[in-house]
Structure formats: C-alpha cells, structure tokens
Amino acid sequence: MTEGTTPAAEGVDTLTRLEQEGEIAADYLEGLLDIADLDGDIDMDVEADRAAVSIISDSTSRDLQKLVGRDGEVLEAIQELTRLAVHRETGDRSRLMLDIAGYRARKRAELTELGTKAAEEAKGTGQPVKLKAMTPFERKVVHDAVAAAGLRSESEGEEPQRRVVVLPV
C-alpha cells in the first residue's frame, strides 16, 4: 500500500490498472486480428488479480484455431507478445491471461479433473502421484485442484520437463 492510501483505494487502483491492461491488450489483439484477416470479438475481464482477455467468434469457422496452434503453442506466443505490448505502454510487467476460442477454458476443466483424480489416487494408494510435464499455466490449475481436494502438491524438474507431484496425506 502506498503512503496516504486506504486498502479500498489501493484495490480500486489495482482494478483500474488491470482494466487498463485489458484495454491495451484488446487494442493490440484487434490489430493482430485485422492483420491476419480473422474475425473475432474481444472480451475483457479481471480474474484473480490479473487481466483476462478472450478472443471469441460466433462463426463456426475454425479460423481462430490457427491462433491456438498445436497444444496451445501459438496461443502462448501471442499471450507473451500481448504482455510485451502492455509492458511497452505501461512500463509494468503484466500477468495478463489470454484465451482464444475457449481453448484455455476447456483446458482448465480437463486439468481440474486430472488434478482431482490424481488427488484421489494419492489418497487411495498413500503414494505420491507424478504427472506428465506441463506448462506453468497447466501446473497452476492442477495445484489448485489438488489443494481443493485437501492434499498438497509440488512441482519438480526443470523446464520444459517440470511436472506436478501430488503428495499423499
């Protein structure tokens, strides 16, 4: 908290900053869609202390899938470029989260289920459960699911082979 501000004012400042990040990101992404000649609408929100921006499309076309790529690789790259665009405008590091065509939302649901099942297995066997290597986003979702199931988990290994290990009680 900065000197002379109240916690409530600090929260408003954070919200305003995150909304600004979302607007900068939306402008950047609209430019990208124009360059790529792709149709899509931009949706902005603030989730868990970070700006969340989604590119969605009403069309049944698979055009936006090009921006997701195999296993979300293109999505990750576009997210990093968008974070850089926000940084260039604000001077602050951004933790902005980008979703395209609902890819991250579907992935989050799958990973939550994976984390819950791994927690059940660890409870049932009393043995640690090691999962496959994952991206930081994927590991965070699994860690959250394991914590919600009442167990602990940790990450082990070095990128890009870093994985979640679910620990029994």
From TrEMBL:
Source organism superkingdom: Bacteria
Record domain R3H: where: 105-169
Coiled coil: none
Annotated InterPro entries: Jag_KH (IPR038008), KH_dom-like_a/b (IPR015946), KhpB (IPR039247), R3H_dom (IPR001374), R3H_dom_sf (IPR036867), R3H_KhpB (IPR034079)
MF-aspect GO terms: RNA binding
Pfam families per UniProt: R3H
Gene3D superfamilies: 3.30.300.20, R3H-like domain (3.30.1370.50)
Protein's name in the database: Jag-like protein
